[in-house]
Design a protein that fits this description.
Helix 1 packs antiparallel against helix 2. The longest helix is centred in the middle third of the chain and has 23 residues. The protein is mostly helical and 69 residues long.
Length: 69
């Protein structure tokens, strides 16, 4: 299953969840859990293989040295 399909189906299930008074049927709950696990596995794969941007490095400025000059 393609990642975009997983996200679309998750969004559809979330919308039906709202329309049904914030409760899932048993079948919907099983489908949601399956899709959520697929999504989590994919994200975990990206983190394990360093395919996620984790932010730039912050340059530290030593204020004590600049005050002495």
């Amino acid at each position: 299953m393609k990642p975009s399909e997983i996200l679309k189906q998750l969004n559809e299930l979330r919308e039906s969840y709202r329309k049904q008074g914030f409760s899932y049927t048993g079948e919907q709950r099983a489908q949601y859990d399956k899709l959520l696990q697929l999504r989590r596995d994919r994200v975990k794969y990206f983190y394990e293989n360093d395919m996620v941007w984790k932010g730039g490095s912050k340059q530290l400025v030593d204020t004590k040295k600049s005050k002495d000059k």
